[in-house]
Amino acid sequence: MHQMHKTLLMIAYAFVLLVAASARSIPQPPSFIRIQNNKLQLEDARVSTVLSSIRGGGAFDDDTDDDYDFDESDFDFDDDDMFDFDAAEDDFGDDNTLTQIVEAYHKTPPLTKAYLTASFGAALLGYVSNKNDFPSILQLDWKPILTKLQIWRPLTAFLNFGPLGLGYLMTAHFVWTYMSTLERLNHSNPYDFWLMMLFGSVMMVGGYTMLGLSPRFLGHNLSTFLVYVWSRYHEGLEVNMFELFNTRAELLPWFFLGQTFLLEGEVPILDFLGIVFGHIYHHYKTTNVLRTPRFVIQWYNGDNKYAQMLREKYKDISSDFEM
What we know:
By secondary structure, the protein is mainly α.
């Protein structure tokens, strides 16, 4: 029991460090991002937002000459502030780190927050009750679904990011980075984001079932679907990879696919499926084949209390996009 508590404490501390680092590097979406007529508009090509990820995403680079325009005031230092080591130590204090992780969690969009919270809860349940394996009652299994009406299984299967540990934290951080970004970009029409998630989930469940693939990878490969959709939103932007080289955002999913092949030594069929389903979604969405049902839009804009609560949450996100 003591060993289990020690392991949980180490995992929680690692999670704090990951999210705290993300809170520093991923600020609220600035004003250069706009969504007009269901199309993303970038008002400034010099993107400074850092969208780092464990799987290799880095910062958007800016090679413009403006980076080298200095002002004399830039070198006007105050000796007292310059050597204020107490203030610097406070920036890395436990209280400050805890504040950052709590603030990052509260600022996470509603669906992303609910999804990751449920995933962590399921992983913790498996750690305590099933020797750190994902709970079997939450896995995708069609027999109990059809015979015992355990209809939650196709949804809860996506909560599986693997056993609780460093690998889990990496995948969770990766999903949080791209899923929350996509949800923010759809802040004015969040039902389109819900439709995207539903479409990707249904396609994956159907594809995995028809191909006879293990459903334990559903949660992990949903991230590939999200990255592909994200890359199509940000076509043309440069992304730094491991501080080694730059690539365009639309090539990012293919980089991950190659990374899986080279580092894991296996054909990346599952990553490829995520890319395929993401491409199908993007094609259907841009050709207006896939549209959010009118009754969902009417419900969201209605007077019921749950819709009002959601609108308030997305209203807070919308304020980040105002000039």
